[in-house]
Amino acid sequence: MEFKLEAHRIVSISLGKIYNSRVQRGGIKLHKNLLVSLVLRSARQVYLSDPCPGLYLAGHPGAPAAPQQPEESAAGPPAGWGEPPPPASRAAWPEPEPQPERPAVPEVPRAGDAEPAATVTAAGDTLQGGEAEAPEAAWRRVEGPRETAVGAGGPAGVSGVCPEGPEAARGPCGCPAGDEDKLSAAPRVDRCLASRPAAAEPPASPPVCARKRGAAGVGGGPADCPAPGSTPLKKPRQNSEEQPGGAAAAAEEEEEMETGNVANLISIFGSSFSGLLRKSPGGGREEAEGEESGPEAAEPGQICCDKPVLRDINPWSTAIVAF
Amino acid sequence: MHCSVKECQCGLCDLSEPHSSHLINGNTADIISTVEFNHTGELLATGDKGGRVVIFQREPESKNAPHSQGEYDVYSTFQSHEPEFDYLKSLEIEEKINKIKWLPQQNAAHSLLSTNDKTIKLWKITERDKRPEGYNLKDEEGKLKDLSTVTSLQVPVLKPMDLMVEVSPRRVFANGHTYHINSISVNSDCETYMSADDLRINLWHLAITDRSFNIVDIKPANMEDLTEVITASEFHPHHCNLFVYSSSKGSLRLCDMRAAALCDKHSKLFEEPEDPSNRSFFSEIISSVSDVKFSHSGRYMLTRDYLTVKVWDLNMEARPIETYQVHDYLRSKLCSLYENDCIFDKFECAWNGSDSVIMTGAYNNFFRMFDRNTKRDVTLEASRESSKPRAVLKPRRVCVGGKRRRDDISVDSLDFTKKILHTAWHPAENIIAIAATNNLYIFQDKVNSDMH
């Protein structure tokens, strides 16, 4: 368990370094970034391979975690890891989550797969295929309720909850361990990830992640937790200046939000040097180019794409381009 | 050993004041980034983060002033590189001097190569100690004379003048590298040199600036597959066809330029299998080689990784013949060192003239020397407080628990901001130059003492 926590911490630190390297004078240093990505990959492997169901629950507000734990372990480690929590635990989720969503939860990953680039995590699922699929998928299912909220509720439709979806998917980018520096990574990734159809991007933020906020206690209470700027994720991508404000607020609520977010962030940034992107026919090339534009700050001739172009590249590639 | 401390280049402080305040004030341009003796040891060049090069010259020992036993004084200072901006990539190119290498002296002038991340420059350093006087048409100040006052012709003569050192850029080798240059090395043929960046090594001719030959290219077709980068490289001191380069994975590759135009295939691969008991998240980082140096004999290579220095025999690829622990007590602190970025520090290493002692830097302004013959090692400190001019350096000890002697430093009280990354050893004598942030310490060993 300690390995997991340490791995988690190392992942957060690594992501912060990767972000900071973008703003360093002299350009991105290939050697250092390579080493950081290797550490990230090692930490991620430990993080994801350690069958520790408790940690899954650590991602949720305190109270429900405890009672759920026995159920989780009863399901056995793989199941506890891979399966969505039984409906009983879902009930423990704060009110804001629309009831009808819940039964749909187990379907989410599949549905997510089918949706055209609906969420990063979903897309990642397709991409990642063989690589540590079970644990990865497990993480995505953790995200499930929020994804579902989006899928079912539509962008602006569902109250409070829904914005969580794509933001949650993008969330990892935005909520590292309470470090304001890293939080500002969010707008970058957001910018590129936001190439997704605008429909998937709900208007700014009801504080949905209230239920992810440990600080708010169990689910942050039935009422929407009034956390202004609850997550930097929600901020419109142009408003990167708002990050500090959001960062401060989000900084309070680390562990709960991060656990799942970090896993996704790991997925985006960690696996191979350029991020774990699989080579998909269209994505492969973009990834390669995107990756080059990352660490070496673009060979001559390559520039970071505009949004309209990014919309057509799959979200994984866009994450790498952002990087 | 006695010490002569060179003052900080900032010009703001005097010798008696500690220097850490400069870093607090943000004056980082004076941080020394490279140190190199020339082939005779008469000159010592330093480069700093602000793109400046300062050359020191050893004063000849004179009987009149026996106490100034060949001390080094400033000989010349010039601005080698300026910050640049790459508009295509929207990148600022740092002016920090990454490496300086002297060319063997072939006439009265001295030449050196200095490089930043992208551009290498060849500088010629000449002395002028005479000037012509007695021109017919111009007077001493250069004004035209009134011809009516000129009654006779004279032949101008050379008269001595105060020594003036002139430095001029003779070549600029630009646009050869996409990635950051980490090392340069002059070939023993004195005509070519190589420059290495993270993924490629180029061979240049000293007289030709508009083209270079790529001799090593480890860039993968798909950058996703990148697993290692080049960290340092050097030509063999005697065989002009051989060079070595080190990688971030801890391996060394010896290449022979006669074998092929592109030396991607190594002639020899020097690699030590990893000790599985030491595996951690940071194993890869600490195995990355930060410096490689051929011995003067050409038979051995010295490598530095984060925690050790290793001596390799060119005839044995399987493992180093000697491994010395520089600061193994840091092994349990790798996570903190990762957090504060210290784990990425690139320490250099150096041979003494006879290849019997090796030296490398560490933290807390400590540097370490290892005698290969007696297997003894010593830790010394480069600091104002403990090094007054002509004082004898006292060995230091880092205690790692267990019984602690009086002057021991505990691991937790080490100052990781005071790091000695760059050191140089005089090619023939026991004179060492230690760069401690923005101070240069020169230690001379007048007595031929053995390590204690």
UniProtKB/TrEMBL annotation, chain A:
Residues 59-119, 195-258, 276-304 are annotated as: Disordered. Residues 59-82 have a biased composition (Low complexity). Pfam families: IER (PF05760). InterPro entries: IER. It comes from the Eukaryota. Belongs to the IER family. This is Immediate early response gene 5 protein. It comes from Odocoileus virginianus (White-tailed deer). The gene is IER5.
Automatic annotation (TrEMBL), chain B:
Gene3D superfamilies: YVTN repeat-like/Quinoprotein amine dehydrogenase (2.130.10.10). It comes from Odocoileus virginianus. This is Serine/threonine-protein phosphatase 2A 55 kDa regulatory subunit B. The lineage of its organism: Eukaryota, Metazoa, Chordata, Craniata, Vertebrata. SMART domains: WD40 (SM00320). InterPro entries: PP2A_PR55, PP2A_PR55_CS, WD40/YVTN_repeat-like_dom_sf, WD40_repeat_dom_sf, WD40_rpt. Keywords: Repeat, WD repeat. It comes from the Eukaryota. Belongs to the phosphatase 2A regulatory subunit B family.
